[in-house]
Design goal:
heterodimer; A: alpha+beta; four-stranded antiparallel beta sheet; 30% helix; globular; B: 616 residues; alpha+beta; seven-stranded antiparallel beta sheet; 20 strands; elongated
Amino acid sequence: MQKATIQLETLTCPSCGQKIENATKSLNGVEKESVKVLFNSSKVKFDFDAEKISVEDVEKAITALGYEVIKSQVKAK
Amino acid sequence: MQRFILSKKNQIAFISAILIVIGFTGEMAFHNETVAIGSLAIASILGVAPIAIQAYQALKVKVVSIDVLVTIAVVGAFFIKNFEESAIVTFLFLFGAFLEQRTLNKTRSAIKELMEMAPESALKRMENGKFEEVEVDEVDVGDILLVKTGAKVPVDGTVLSGEGHINEASITGESVPVSKRKDAGVYAGTILENGTLQIIANRVGEDTTFGRIIELVEEAQDSKSEAERFIDRFSKYYTPAVLVLGIIVWLFSRNIELAITILVLGCPGALVIGVPVSNVAGIGNGARHGILLKGSEVIGDFSRVDAFVFDKTGTLTIGNPQVAEKEIYTADVDEVLAYLASVEHESDHPLAKAVVEHIGDTKLYLVEKTEVVKGGGIAAQVDGHRVAVGNVALMKRENVHLSEKARNDIIRFEKNGNSLVLISVDNELKALIGIRDQIRPGVKENLQKLKKLGVKNLVVLSGDNQGTVDLVACELGLTEAHGHMLPEDKSAYIEELKTKGHIVAFVGDGVNDSPSLALAQIGIAMGSGTDVAIETSDVVLMNSDFSRLPHALGLAKATANNMRQNIIIAVGVVLILLASLFFSEWMNMSIGMLVHEASILAVILNGMRLLSYKLR
């Protein structure tokens, strides 16, 4: 189980947080309960199973929603 | 393609504006219908593009967002050939988003300042023994780093070699540089003002004290109180409900205009953003002043505090007691003092340290069979004698007879606000020492400010005797003082206050007063940036500066007020909009969107007022 923190460009609309949260939760391999969107610091934090999904996959999903990923950090849990 | 359009939202808004102006000029000045309709139509299509994309993305993840409502409304307007409305609505929406982004950025600026203080690079010793610059993320625990003069310490660590002076203001608030040499601990984010240090990394990145403070501030800004969680749940169902309402109205009235206007007016934008904005601004202000309010639930509770309970030693007082007076009941002064020093030498208790310091250099005897009596003192064998050092309770336990003179002295000492240390040798009282701890400078004024902010009860609890506590209470203007309190007594007292319906804030030492800190609704630990203080406090005074307390309380109250104001603005606006829709003629989509965006901005700007809050 890995823990990831993705830094996004500044989020402005409250529904953005909702969208990102739903999109991240729906990805296979991401621990649904652990997904936290920090609206004010524009970060997404979540735990994931490295064998099922990679951080890049999650980044792609978020970018596809229209939110730019600035950087991401992964730590073993 | 989608990304491209989304990234050009601001330009699109700008072009829309121009096209709208062209359109209106065309119609009004030149009575040229075609130009008007043409440019407005183009403006609408351009404008709705990014909004529609966002709506589509939202629907893909099963979220009915404001974008969905606006897109349907605009398409509807297009359908009924009302290009004016569609153009204006899209423009206002985009422009509003632009303004929101600018103002929100300002609101979040406080934490950005904090993050900028974070170190970015470090000089790491590589395998070849040389030091190379690496990104601070690449430093692991156990790495050896070089810190040069003027540089920021990159991680929490221990000094291996070298010496210098470090400015630790960013962590402890102490502006006087601290001298560091071998085996000293250093914090990430502090600045090495002179000298050179080689350190070994103990904690890196998020685990450093600095990293944890930032993380706590971020989480606090996003922490949701009951009210906010309710609003979130509410808006999840509310937005689709507005959509359904719009459809129903259309089905019943066949009035597309009315239906789509409802879609636009119903958006809950201001409500959803109103409370978090106040939260962020309030916490940001706090962070700038060395105060960390851990979330909006904490802000709410803290703003309603009516009883402040203080621990005495180390909180109200400096925690550096000194011997103030003494009475010796024997001729062998030197011997007694030597025994006393020997026993007290073993103890870490501040009173013991004061005694040792006062006595100074003396012969130290071997102390054996040490028995620590909780709440009493120490009994031991010294030089063949049974020596007991402690308070009056301990003397009673040891069956030491107290002469009338001794008892009078004890009363006198207590009246003078002394903590007492008595020493008996072979069950005979030999000496009485009075120790006083100085009150921290400025505490009196700060407590007055707290009273001005509406705190009715200021209480001091202490393990010291009642006399000392009473004196402190008198001098500082406290409402209640309780001495002879063991840690259990303190937490029991807080429990009692809570049962009586008070909202209690407890200010104490992070290590010893954990139960009390946990029990009180608001726990404030004075711990100078130690882990325990940061973890256990609800309100962290980042540099244990007592004078921040009034600001913290005032800020919490101001923030709570601000949140209420924003909720009133948001709800009020929606109600007014809906009422005027049904009861007046002039409400239409454009005006509705204008008012909607204005309310969002109003709420954000109101929140921003908190950034500049200062206690008068």
